[in-house]
Amino acid sequence: MNNDQTIHVHQGAEGTHEVLGNGHGNGHDHHHKQSFITKYIFSQDHKVIGKQFLITGIIWAIIGALFSVLFRLQLGFPDESFPILETVFGKWAKGGHIEPEFYYALITMHGTILIFFVLTAGLSGTFANILIPLQVGARDMASPLMNMMSYWFFFLASVVMITSLFISTGPASGGWTMYPPLSALGQANIGSKLGTDLWLVSMALFVVQGLLGNLNYITTILNMRTKGMSMTRMPLTIWSLFFTAILGVLSFPVLLSGFILLLFDRNLGTSFYLSDIYVAGQALPNEGGSPILYQHLFWFLGHPEVYIVILPAMGIVSEVMSVNSRKPIFGYMAMVGSLFAICILALLVWAHHMFVSGMNPFLGSVFVLLTLLIAIPSAIKVFNWLTTIWRGNIRFTPAMLFCLGFVSVFISGGLTGIWMGNSTIDIHIHDTYFIIAHFHLVMGVAAFFGMFAGVYHWFPKMFGRYLNNTLGYIHFWVSMAGAYLIFWPMHYMGLAGVPRRYLDFTLWKSFNQFADLNKMISVVTIIVFAVNLMFVFNFFYSIFKGRKVRTLNPWGATTLEWTTPINPGHGNWVGEIPEVHRWPYDYAKDGRDFIPQTEPLNPNESKH
What local confidence, expressed as pLDDT, does residue 13 receive? Predict the structure, then answer.
């Protein structure tokens, strides 16, 4: 919509409803047409779509985390049997022990669900939808219809993925990376049968969701900013979502091509990834393919994916930290520049996942250099966050605590990345628990902390109510302690050579020494899972019963989303869209606590 469009508000018996028009008297009254289905299910309002992504993401997070609890039971207590597992999973857990095939399916689905369905769709889908139009000053996304389709492709992908959990041969079990030849040959193992086809179809639908959403986000940010909202006046949340969307548009299609070729190899007899293979003594006719080709196609998305997950969290943390430190963000342009550098370098480092794949070592050395370079923009961001909170007037809200936790795990998890980026050390620690420790801290826990910070901070804008603070504090402290208790010891296990994706270590004398440590990790995992279920309860309870928001701007923030009504209708602003006069971080300036972006500059103020 253009900026000359206005919204006329009518008060009716059922409350407020809007007429969208272009200021010339030809608006359409949407109230009479909006049934429950058009308002909440097939909605084209970006705020409702954002909530759909969030709630779907929460459901997926519960499923994905539950899988990790199940395989931690196996790892922590390999000699014990849990009859309840047989009751629930039948043949997959005979005698209360998880079967090896089912164990591989669990870790495959755990990784796939949390990386793609929760931390990609759940995080970007939620915050890009809710924040982009509200923070740049737009009535809605550039294409509300495409936006709605984006969610429904995600929903379809979810349905196909869930279906694969209920078929007789079980879900895919080739690891979340799905390397051929294991994933390319149905006869290789039971999880390579129909489950893998469903996994590939689901992921193809997921890529379509990403492209529809990301193109919309980019267009909205470039074309639909309100008057005065120059690029350098955008909040860092919008910058981070902008670069995330660009990364998604550039790298997801490559993954799609990799998956389609894998479907061809599986079902049409092609040989893109297969060559000279024997199964049970029988030579297969496939010749000329290379599984390394798949690795290149996969990791060309796989590494930008890490940043697609972490960049939105970085933007949220920058915003929430500034608001709750009552200080301007330190080094705004350096933050934007480092986001840009991360975006470029993210596309150039994929082969550091392939140091042990037989790739040319000279090529490896190039990737070592590029990998270590990406530490620089990440370090700039860390220093800027620390400088933002330095001597700030900090309010320790649950959102702020999750931001501080984010910076902590980002530093500690990020430092181990310097080890792994070095190809000689990586040869020793590749595919060990060291890798698990690193990426769970820096990408899993950090991204979740960013997501939690965003939910606690913008929940009043989404639902017009507050989350319960006491439950928020318990949620943070248990999750924070739990994150380090679970993943920090894994670094030491990895250095000792303990391999990942193994079901049972009791037969190895050298790995048996970690039996008690494994028990401890499993117990903490169950506690953290329980506390996060408490967060889910807090979330859904607060939507209906939380303390109501009484003020337009509960956190005293400067950005545009807090200038809308407490429960904004479709179109966001009543009347004109506000004009922007200043950058988004005017805190503690001219003797005032904060100055909104919409307030005109004094004659003696410097322009940002």
Answer: 34
